[in-house]
Amino acid sequence: MESFPRPVALALTLFTIAGCASSAGPADSPAPQPEAAPVEEAAAPVEEAGPRFASETPVYSEAQATRGRDLYDVECATCHGPREFSGTSFLRRWSGGPVGSLFGYINGSMPQMSPGILTYEETADIVAYVLSLNGFPAGNVELPSEPSALAEIRYQPSTGR
C-alpha cells in the first residue's frame, strides 16, 4: 500500500468517504455532489497543527544547546551525568511523547535541592542540550520556552537509532 503524507491521506480519505456517501442513495434520486471546499478546509489544519518530530525538523539552535550545556554544568551535573539524558533507556522513557513533558519534568522538579528555580528559558536551554546529546539536529530557531508550544513537538528519534 502506498504511503501518503498525513494531509494528503486525510484528503483522500475524506474524498473517498464523500464519494461513497454520494452513491449510497436510492437509484432513482440524483446523487449529491460533494463540495470541494470542506475537504480542503479539513486538510489544511492537520498540516499546520500536526506535531513536529525533533528528529526530522531542527527545533533548537546550537547556541541554545551551548547555553543549556553551561547551565547543566552549574545546575545539574552535581547530581546527574550526561549519560542519564541519552541512550537507549532515556529514549525508551521519553520517545513518542511531547518535548513539553520533559520540559515540565525538569522545570517542576529540578534541581533536586531547589526544584522550580529554573526559568522557562533556562529549562528550554537545558532541553535543547538534551536534544543535542541524543543527536537531534540543530537549526536556526530556538526551542520555544512556552509549554503549550512544546506540546506540539514530539521527542521521536529517527528509525535509524
Structure description:
This protein starts with 5 loop residues before the first helix and ends in a 7-residue tail after the last strand. The chain is globular and about 35 Å long. It has helices at 6-22, 36-49, 62-75, 88-94, 99-109, 120-133, 147-150; strands at residues 52-53, 153-154. The chain has 161 residues and is mostly helical. The protein contains seven helices and two strands, in the order H-H-E-H-H-H-H-H-E. Strands 1-2 form a two-stranded parallel sheet. Residues 1-51 have low confidence and may be disordered. Helices cover 50% and strands 2% of the residues. The longest helix is centred in the N-terminal third of the chain and has 17 residues, at 6-22.
Average of per-residue pLDDT values: 73
Instruction: Spell out the helices and strands N to C.
Output: HHEHHHHHE
Binned strand content = under 5%
The helicity comes to: 40-55%
* Number of beta strands: 2
Number of helices: 7
Helix/sheet category: mainly alpha
Taking all Cα atoms into account, the compactness measure Rg is 22 Å
First and last CA, distance: 25 Å
- Low-pLDDT residue intervals, each spanning 5 or more residues: 1-51
User: What's the shape?
Assistant: globular
Walk across the major sheet and give the strand order.
1-2
Major sheet details: 2 strands, parallel
